Structure prediction request, 433 residues.
Amino acid sequence: MSDDRPVTKGRRFLRLAGMTASVAGQYAKSRIKSVFQTPEAAAAERATINEVNGALIAKTLGELKGAVMKVGQMASIASDILPRELAEPLKALQKEAPPMAYEVIAEQVEAELGAPPETLFQRFDREPFASASIGQVHRAITDDGREVVVKVQYPGVDGAVDSDLAHLKLVLRAGGLMKVKKQDMDAVFREVRARLMEELDYCNEADNVRLFREYHQRHPFVVIPDVVGERSSQRVLTLTYEAGDSIDSLTARGYTQALRDQIGVNLFRVMAEQLFDFRTIHADPNPGNLAVRPDGTLVLYDFGCVKKIPREIIEAYKATIRAGLAEDYPGVERGLRALGVRRVDGPPVPHQFYKRWRDAFARPFVGDEPFDYGASTIHEDVMPLVPGSLKMLDSFKPPPDLVFIDRMVVGHYGNLRAIGARGRFMDLLRPYL
Prediction:
């Protein structure tokens, strides 16, 4: 556990400015050297510089926590618009962050709720139950005997968002790591900022928990904690404790293949129901925000990042999926234009380009045999498609409305792989289309 206090705003600024200067300097040096190199040598040099810069960026973001670490954790989004040398080290940020000292947490609780944890709770564990980019969680027991978890935001995180995001945009631009046009990336960052500001407001998260609890009452295989309002505030959120097994422990705990398959069905249904019916998604599919029980029940945690999706986006999304599955590539083109992915004024895109991506992504939904997510290699098989796609960037742009849909879909792809689920997923998807 770190004994350090949260990094002050001034120190935070200096650390990020130092990181930016170092990355920009390395990039400028490689640009100068490339003038005197063969194209092959220049490409190798650029990959080496990207690797060094990627490691530095990931290390700095992980140490600073807060908004920049949260954005860094979205490697599932960034991997298609950032070089592999940066996207890969950012994936390490998905792991649990080092916790803050207990004294920092206790002071934050007292500042928010008016008394120290030992006064407010019958028991409050000094050791954290979990820690993340913007806060950490402690187990506790209320005076009336309820087992709860108390989520406490790190001091100062909410005041550093704009500075953090500005530095992150600057380092991507100055390091030659940005692959899309400035106005397109600015639009994505505005969407990310909006969700971050919501995530930093625990009163908003409490409302989200209540909203999803009410919606999922129709699903007996879903459990969501309840809000303990009298022990919650803007930066402290207390929820009832709901136990479950982590999805990476299922083998050790003896979960059968049949049970894993049922859990996969339940998870897929939750994802589809939220997206296509509720049009409001739990948009942080980190494996730590999901647990399972031996009866197939899913336990969902952490409703800070929630995205409400306009009906017209959902309809365009469904139309694009239908067209892709049917190999109707003019229909795919129309759907992507409606989604804001395809530039109206961009160069034409050959149907073969769409087919290569379609054939990779459609695998869980085509064929006569059940699809085995545990053995899936989609994430590896799409990598050879990326270099060709970079040549088509003038035809596409990253649409803000899809940022968190993509995050959910890609994240739950990884979760279904971890569960090792098998099934006929087209049968599950078809009713929603």
About this structure: The CA atoms of residues 62 and 69 lie 6 Å apart.
